[in-house]
Amino acid sequence: MMSIVEFFKNLPRKQCVSCGNAIDEKADCYGNLCDECDHPAR
Questions:
Q1: Confidence check: pLDDT of 41 > 90
Q2: Is the dihedral angle over the CA atoms 27, 29, 30, 34 positive or is it negative?
Q3: How far apart are CA 6 and CA 8, in angstroms?
Q4: Which InterPro entries is this protein grouped with (predicted)?
Q5: Rounded CA separation 1/40 (Å)
Q6: pTM of the entire structure?
Q7: What residue segments make up the domains of the chain, in order of their start?
Q8: The pLDDT value given to residue 30
Q9: Of 6, 8, 21, 1, which is closest to residue 32 (Cα–Cα)?
Q10: How far is Cα 1 from Cα 10, in angstroms, rounded to an integer?
Q11: CA 3 – CA 8 distance, rounded (Å)
Q12: What is the DSSP string of the chain?
């Protein structure tokens, strides 16, 4: 049986739903847009 730590280490990286780039996750972040697509100037 896999440990919980190994389970979370092996999860795939989140991808932006708009452009498909990988998202650099932040603490307590449930967003699904990357910083570029979520920029307020857009």
A1: no
A2: negative
A3: 5
A4: YhfH-like
A5: 44
A6: 0.61
A7: 1-41
A8: 79
A9: 21
A10: 14
A11: 9
A12: ---HHHHHHTSPPPB-TTT-PBP---TT----S-TTTT-TT-
